[in-house]
């Protein structure tokens, strides 16, 4: 039997990284940066007011208070967006709005609440010291600073930073194009009336959702009956020119395991047993004239789901030019559970209050328990059981956070 690491390495070796692409800011959300983002401007871009109030020379309001106010001439208004360059006369003030550029000579702002709100002359009741209520040019970011590193995923806050840094376009990791094909005569679409022996095809919507939630692009999907000729024809020329094809079902030892039958005959796909649970039967190789990489996942729903996390995610990351390994975290088990020796067990667990417990039944057909899970606990092959208090390694689930 192959180890998980051996199989993962064989899969990653099937693909070459796709070149990064440039996208407009509006299309960057959720994408992974392929290059550092460098600010083209200082942030703030100019000294400006943090409050609606009066721009002053601090020396002119020294000692001002409610009991002993200072009265100054108001020389005019500066609103946010005023592009003129104002100079503040000594002994005078200007009304200034939040975000408006500070006039030359001013070094503090008295908020309007600390005044009588005067328009021609104003009574100020705060001894604003130099720098008070100001936002200084470059105090947040300097032009030329690397504001975001390659490898970081663009979230709304980072998108705002890229925009503010006046960078209209960024280089991002390519989104691999993926096709999903479910196989099996027993499968029907959700919403169908089920005959005895039929089940709803849940792997296809699950894998489509995983592909999209993992940031890849779905370029084709469908279902194939256990018909070797039809399957061979489809796999010889998968529509949509995907970078990766995923199938589910038909890879174990059954008489109607058509994926295995067809692809074994092609001589380009290798089927292996991997020392893991669930997800033991696996296959991978290339199909068609374009030699498109293919990963054949087992049909049992939880096996397919776990295999996606353990094997397909690293392939998608490698295609995107990112390090294949996903980051893991750790947590303490709040209860014990047994694990099969000789295989890595990916226990579906719930992380709550900083501790983990199995999410329920661990059968590879049990979607009820899968749906409650937040992580996969990775229990290595040498471990026969997890005890309460043990530290376990956790693989996050795609789409969980
Ligand atoms: N004699 C052996 N039998 C089995 C072995 C074995 O080593 N020797 N391995 C078992 C393990 S482990 C797994 S995992 C499964 C893998 O089976 P296949 O990949 O061939 O998948 P199927 O036989 O087509 O289906 C298995 C199971 O999953 C259901 N299924 C399939 N596709 C879907 C779908 N799209 N949506 C929902 N459910 C699906 C299917 O109805 C079956 O119940 O093989 C074991 N057997
Ligand atoms: O490996 Mo199968 O995936 O145990 O059900």
């Amino acid at each position: 039997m192959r180890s998980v690491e051996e199989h993962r390495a064989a899969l990653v070796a099937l693909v070459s990284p796709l070149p990064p692409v440039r996208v407009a800011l509006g299309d960057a959300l959720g994408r992974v940066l392929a290059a550092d983002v460098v600010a083209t401007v200082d942030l703030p871009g100019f000294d400006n007011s943090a409050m609606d109030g009066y721009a002053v020379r601090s020396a002119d309001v020294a000692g001002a208070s409610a009991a002993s106010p200072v009265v100054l001439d108001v020389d005019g208004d500066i609103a946010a967006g005023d592009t003129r360059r104002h100079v503040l006369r000594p002994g005078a003030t200007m009304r200034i709005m939040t975000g408006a550029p500070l006039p030359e000579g001013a070094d503090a702002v008295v908020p309007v609440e600390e005044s009588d709100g005067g328009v021609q002359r104003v009574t100020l009741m705060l001894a604003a010291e130099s720098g008070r209520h100001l936002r200084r040019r470059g105090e947040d970011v300097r032009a030329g600073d690397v504001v975001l590193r390659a490898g970081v995923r663009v979230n709304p806050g980072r998108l705002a930073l890229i925009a503010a840094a006046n960078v209209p376009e960024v280089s991002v990791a390519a989104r691999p194009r993926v096709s999903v094909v479910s196989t099996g005569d027993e499968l029907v679409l959700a919403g169908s009336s089920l005959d005895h022996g039929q089940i709803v095809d849940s792997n296809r919507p699950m894998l489509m959702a995983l592909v999209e939630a993992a940031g890849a692009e779905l370029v084709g999907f469908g279902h194939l009956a256990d018909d070797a000729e039809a399957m061979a024809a489809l796999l010889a020329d998968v529509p949509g020119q995907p970078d990766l094809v995923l199938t589910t079902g038909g890879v174990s030892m059954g008489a109607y395991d058509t994926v295995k039958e067809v692809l074994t005959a092609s001589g380009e796909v290798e089927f292996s047993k991997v020392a893991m649970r669930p997800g033991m039967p696996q296959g991978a190789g290339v199909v068609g004239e374009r030699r498109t990489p293919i990963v054949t996942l087992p049909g049992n729903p939880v096996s397919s789901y776990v295999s996606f996390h353990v094997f397909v995610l690293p392939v998608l990351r490698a295609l995107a030019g990112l390090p294949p390994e996903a980051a893991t975290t750790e947590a303490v088990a709040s209860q014990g559970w047994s694990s099969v020796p000789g295989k890595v067990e990916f226990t579906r667990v719930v992380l709550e209050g900083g501790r983990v417990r199995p999410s329920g039944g661990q059968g590879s057909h049990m979607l009820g328990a899968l749906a409650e899970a937040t992580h996969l606990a990775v229990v290595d092959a040498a471990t026969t059981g997890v005890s309460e208090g043990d530290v376990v390694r956790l693989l996050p689930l795609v789409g969980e956070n």
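The chain has four domains: 4-18+174-319, 26-41+142-172, 48-135, 329-396. The mean pLDDT is 96.
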